[in-house]
Amino acid sequence: MKPTTSSTTPSLRIHVDRKSCYGHALCVFKGPEVFELDDEGYCISDGILVPEGQEEQARASAEACPERCITIIEETASNDSSED
Amino acid sequence: MAMDIPPHVPRELVFDFDFHTDQRLRDDPQRGFRSLYELPSIFYAPHYGGHWVISGYETVFDALHSPDIFSSEDQHIPPSDEPQFGQIPVMQDPPEHTVYRRLISPLLSPKAVGALEARTRVLASELIEGFKDRGQCDFVREFAALVPVTIFLRLMDLPTDKLEEFRKWSDDFFSAGTEEALRAANDQILAYISGHISSRRGSGANDFISALWREEVHGRPITQEEMEAICMLLFIAGTDTVTNTLGFSMRHIAEHPEIQERIASNPSEIPEAVEECLRLFSTSNVQRRVACDTTFRGVAMKRNDMAVVLTSTAGADSEMTDNAETFMLDRGRKQHLAFGAGPHRCAGSHLARIEIKVCLQEWFKRIARFGIKPAAEVPTRAGTVMGIMSLPLTWDL
Ligand code: HEM
Ligand code: SF4
User: Where does ligand 2 bind, in terms of residues with CB under 6 Å?
Assistant: First the structure.
């Protein structure tokens, strides 16, 4: 179950392909307010919503990830609740 | 070029390039490796038994993510029947690699090595304070070579009173010209650390060695031999690399007053400067052995062909970024593969970034303008891992 937003403006959700994450940590370097690593140094931010105001950080992180395993998905409140 | 080219290698892909001694690599090995962008991204060099040379961001990226084609086991240029040192986990392939890599990653994660930042800072500032009033120093010998070895000893909680000796062994190791010299230096270092390793067994302490002893492999306790193979790799992979990245970077910065000015007046940009240093002055390429007869990006390769994969110049690919050869803090994406990619991506990259960042910060706090000592020799070496052995700098008092 994922949180739904009540706002109608599109929100951004982070998708991290965890199989491809090799722990470069550049996501955290570029987006400290958005991304988080586990104790082994791998990204655990798959599925989170980008906090308001941190959209730029999130995009910069996705660009910086050398494994190209971060994608940012735009979703609106309506399709957010209808997933899976 | 007195060697037979294997029949599966097309003549048009053969280029005379000796990755240790080629003229292009003299004085400025990174620039020399970058000049290979004129050649096909996969070519064959008829030296050291013959091997492929793979360059370009996409091609290198692809090779590093194809461990089933490009194996890390038994890779040796020139090929050798001698048993290899078998460093763990860098000379293993998945899935075995994954078993060991899981033990190491937590011990070198950003969180785990964060505590070493303060120690690095104290050490770097003490060293600089020690020579600052002289108006000159050998940046490599008096600074860049000391920081990573000392931090390695700290990480392992080994006594630092052997620092001088340790450094000499390490110099012997990295400058070894022959297989025998390499083995001798390896044995010396191993003899020293293996005693410390065995005496830590069962210790509850939190240094790297004690923590690693508490791990299990395939459901059994880790062995002394495995411990040694991992610790030796950490030493080999984690000292010289940092020294030389710092050395080559600082040579470039010393030759460019505009970069000095920019960094000195914007020290908060140092983390970005570190990425630009890694993009242009990485010192490490990697080697692989072709595991099966295959075609990689249109090129036929045979099992047991060797390959040098140019991770060091991937960040200077003009397809990836504009003015690829220029040091530019304002470059938006500083994409590079200095730490490799895929399963073997450098486990120590977080520590390496801390060390380089802190060294630059402490340096620029104290010495904002400097240059290379006029007429000084700046000896360098090329190869899979590049080196800069001395960098005399001067500054006004
Ligand atoms: C600027 C400094 C450094 C550079 C340029 C560098 C570069 C690299 C590269 C390119 C690899 C990949 C090897 C391969 O694919 O075969 C690697 C692996 C590795 N590095 Fe680093 N490294 C640096 C610093 C460090 C430090 C400080 C440590 C340890 C504290 C370290 C530990 C390791 C280890 C353990 C591996 C093996 C990882 C594996 O096989 O899974 N490195 N490094
Ligand atoms: S930058 Fe990419 S590979 Fe690295 S930790 Fe973040 S998600 Fe994983």
Answer: A 16, 21-27, 42-43, 65, 67, 69-70
